[in-house]
Amino acid sequence: MTKFIVPTRDEVNAENQKIFDNLKDSIGFVPNLFATYAYSDNALKNYLNFSNAKTSLKTKEKEVVNLAVSEVNNCEYCLSAHTTIAKMNGFTEDQILELRSGKASFDNKLDALAKLSRNITQNRGYADEEILENFFEAGWTKENLIDTISLVGDKTISNYINNTTNVPVDFPLAKPLQGEPA
């Protein structure tokens, strides 16, 4: 198997070095997955622009999508990173595990979002009509739908990069789900 070593600041181009410096200043370190994007001269900047773009989804809602998608795609790195971020945004460990399974019994609107995110990911974009109707009945809009699909794509990119490169996880490891596999 090809082994990917996480590139250091000195091993990436000048633009990526600036991004590394900004990441270090803002969050204290350069996550291994972001550093791996820097194998490309353009991918890290493009990904961060896409990932940080304006959306109709609030931060907590984005984490619902990130957790559900990363579980379906079996991405240990993203599950670990987004478990940490979800905790920072007020979710409990039990809520996070439930969100990863594509449910949120503690909030009807988030439940519809988690179910749709999981369903879209599992079905490669072909949402089940019943799940889509439930999403709208829970109060989500067509704008929210498009932004959710965009976020599913955003997270899938990171999941695939990590699952292909298998770079070391530099966040506390997420607990495995018990019961039904993703």
Approximately how much helix is present in the residues?
Answer: 55-70%
- Structural class given helices, strands, pairing? mainly alpha
Broad CATH class of the largest domain: Mainly Alpha
Distance between the termini: 25 Å
Instruction: Please tell me how large the radius of gyration is.
Output: 17 Å
Task: Report the CATH architecture of the largest domain.
Answer: Up-down Bundle
Tally of DSSP helical segments: 9
For this structure, the CATH topology of the largest domain is AhpD-like
Q: CATH homologous superfamily of the largest domain - what is it?
A: AhpD-like
| Uncertain stretches | none
Mean pLDDT: 96
Global outline = globular
Strand content: under 5%
Largest sheet: none
Find the count of extended strands (DSSP E, 2+ residues): 0
Number of domains: 2
Q: Topology as H/E string?
A: HHHHHHHHH
Give a summary of the structure in a few sentences.
It contains nine helices and no strands. With 182 residues, it is mainly α.
Fold blueprint:
Blueprint: H1 14-27, H2 32-37, H3 43-51, H4 59-72, H5 76-88, H6 93-100, H7 108-122, H8 129-137, H9 142-165
Helix pairs in contact: 4-5, 4-7, 4-9, 7-8, 7-9
